[in-house]
Amino acid sequence: MSIVGLDEVTLTTEDLGVARRFLEDFGLALASESEHELVFVARDRTGLRIRRVGDPSLPPGPVEGPNIRQAVWGVGDAAALERIAAELGKDREVRVSGGLVSSVDDDGLAIAFRLTQRVPLTNELPAVNVPGLPPQRKVNQTLDFDAPIRPNTFSHLVMYTPDLARIERFYVERLGFRITDRFTGMGVFMRAEGNPDHHQLFFIQRPPGKGLNHIAFHVRDMNEVMLAGKRLHAKGWASSWGPGRHIYGANVFWYFKSPFGGNIEYDADMDVVDDDWKPRETAPGPDTAAIWSTSYPPSAGH
Ligand SMILES: [Fe+2]
């Protein structure tokens, strides 16, 4: 299906002013602003659309209060958009308008698809000095600990589900996602066909059984996770888990509470895989959720 990843997620909040301050502090860039909407983007133009909880123009939300209202997936070409519209049109309403193919997943979440609007990223490799190797950071140079940190790209979306098997079938059989790993009876990681990152989606079958658990943005490297998290914490926003490093996906993480009804994560250095990857499975728990972290995971798990 040639889905390349999350282009945009629509979230709701009680207070657009608080949301604006939070996302500016998080490091995303304000792309547009009106009386009823904020759009924030990462370096590659993937990002978040923020509206008020009671906004009548949005698809219905999974739970009352701030939460997710739509996930927009970017696809690689127009043929893929047509294939997705035809596939979903077999058993559910599909609307096509302005280049956007809109429908719902099997949990009732509004999902949409468009030609991806992401732009290519440019980055320099982190300059790390390793014993026995020529210094990567030039002699007499040090690190710039004050450099601004902009999240690079949307990493993943994590949702609660009432039925893990059903939602797994939907994304795999209808949209071509690949399963990458599983927590037995609790969670499934999956990636889009056109994205090598270990996961762009993770579903958790635990109470409340619906709605947003968290979203994540990639920063460049572990150093940026630590610095960005330290800065966000210093501005008064509450950490919910981390910093730490996951085992499945191997991403370094730091989670914060957000004004959108779920957490938001900085992550970096996630595994990339292809179709030779063999999905693993293990019991969920603190020892399998992270190889190390500075705090125990919240009761919700990931
Ligand atoms: Fe995550």
From TrEMBL:
<feature type="region of interest" description="Disordered">
    <location>
        <begin position="277"/>
        <end position="302"/>
    </location>
</feature>
<dbReference type="GO" id="GO:0004493">
    <property type="term" value="F:methylmalonyl-CoA epimerase activity"/>
</dbReference>
<dbReference type="Pfam" id="PF00903">
    <property type="entry name" value="Glyoxalase"/>
</dbReference>
<feature type="domain" description="VOC">
    <location>
        <begin position="153"/>
        <end position="269"/>
    </location>
</feature>
<protein>
    <submittedName>
        <fullName>VOC family protein</fullName>
    </submittedName>
</protein>
<dbReference type="InterPro" id="IPR037523">
    <property type="entry name" value="VOC_core"/>
</dbReference>
<dbReference type="InterPro" id="IPR029068">
    <property type="entry name" value="Glyas_Bleomycin-R_OHBP_Dase"/>
</dbReference>
<dbReference type="GO" id="GO:0046872">
    <property type="term" value="F:metal ion binding"/>
</dbReference>
<dbReference type="GO" id="GO:0046491">
    <property type="term" value="P:L-methylmalonyl-CoA metabolic process"/>
</dbReference>
<dbReference type="InterPro" id="IPR004360">
    <property type="entry name" value="Glyas_Fos-R_dOase_dom"/>
</dbReference>
<keyword id="KW-0479">Metal-binding</keyword>
<dbReference type="InterPro" id="IPR051785">
    <property type="entry name" value="MMCE/EMCE_epimerase"/>
</dbReference>
<feature type="compositionally biased region" description="Polar residues">
    <location>
        <begin position="291"/>
        <end position="302"/>
    </location>
</feature>
